[in-house]
């Protein structure tokens, strides 16, 4: 087989055979297929789509490109959650220890920033010495002893996806249902999960901006995962505004720690996190009802059990032993922190969440090339929410920047991408739909 012929067939809207897909994925894994050919195929898929059989075969081939884990020594359900990406989405950092506190085991394989969205691994990289790519032995040991481990793809877990993922980020081929499905599930199925829940973001800050496409992606992921033997459901959640009060790697880690300490909890962030956790725990058979699960989850937050598990995970994977007690001691801080005020008084009625996410790149907190180093300290805190009132004393947000020029550019972007009106808007629910 020739890679260029496979690319040509997909360019001409033809269906690829399982053998062709397997050949191409094998070539990505062993390095015989060039980056430009990977980019060409992802663009052909982006433009022409894939059939259900192609998506399933792509997912399985990518899963089988490396080691597929099993957990014979674990005495509880092996579960995970995945988000399709949002702005200010730090749910994974809180959810993993919350699930572990209820008796589940969470081997969470996450990714880096993609397009306008932040990445869980980039957030964790702001914690000194935290290992996002540990050996499989350390990964297994941490999951068993701490109850959860959030890591990136090691060289042996879905290595083909790792390459494709980086190229999609910089080749404008992110928003593709087949590629998103295969990327997410190749990692999740390689982790040996029994149960999975998807957080499908929908809105102007999501890769799926309209409900029709969000439902299509939810159906694709749920169908492929269940067919592969992992019981999966999805919750479609609103991403028409920033999630939580912060955006940026270290800043979101701090918000997550404060959430687990039960000291500061944005209501939308809490409701989505609680819904994902409770539905997954019911699917896994740990609780018989959502209300029972929610009560136990809240008890674990109140008692500090979830925070303790998060601390054990951080320490087991190389981070400071007192990180949760003194996160500000370890997280990097920008030299500039200044408020941005709106040019008029009124209520926040809407925001261009995608553009706000992209502005993190200008603050050096995101990438334009796969190898680019980022600054983990930059971003926004105390970010406004739709329905909030702003005036000369209440800012849109505080900008954390490396220099004055970056601050001014970020301030301009916020003012340009946040709409203010004299009339208070209706607030949309954060949970849109559950897909089983």
Report on the structure:
This protein has 436 residues and is an alpha/beta fold. The chain has three domains: 3-63, Transferase, Pyrimidine Nucleoside Phosphorylase, Chain A, domain 3; 79-328, Nucleoside phosphorylase/phosphoribosyltransferase catalytic domain (Pyrimidine Nucleoside Phosphorylase, Chain A, domain 2); 333-421, Pyrimidine nucleoside phosphorylase-like, C-terminal domain (Aldehyde Oxidoreductase, domain 3), CATH 3.90.1170. Helix content is 46%, strand content 14%. It contains 17 helices and twelve strands. The strands form four sheets. It has a four-stranded mixed beta sheet with strand order 1-4-5-12, with helices on both faces. The chain has a three-stranded antiparallel beta sheet with strand order 6-10-8, with helices on one face. Helix 10 (211-227) links the parallel strand 4 and strand 5. Helix 4 (52-63) packs parallel to helix 9, helix 5 (91-101) packs across helix 12 and helix 12 crosses helix 13 (290-303). It is globular. The chain starts with a helix and ends with a strand. The model has no long low-confidence stretch (mean pLDDT 93).
CATH topology of the largest domain: Pyrimidine Nucleoside Phosphorylase, Chain A, domain 2
* Spatial strand order of the main sheet: 1-4-5-12
Structural class designation: alpha/beta
The total beta strand count reads 12
What overall form do the CA principal axes indicate? Answer: globular
Largest sheet: 4 strands, mixed
List unreliable stretches of 5+ residues: none
CA(first)-CA(last) distance: 39 Å
CATH superfamily of the largest domain: Nucleoside phosphorylase/phosphoribosyltransferase catalytic domain
How large is the radius of gyration? 21 Å
Oligomer: single chain
The CATH class assignment of the largest domain is Alpha Beta
- What is the overall number of helices? 17
Order of helices and strands: HHHHEHEHHEHHEHEHHHHHEEHEEEHEE
The total tally of domains equals 3
Strand-residue fraction? 5-15%
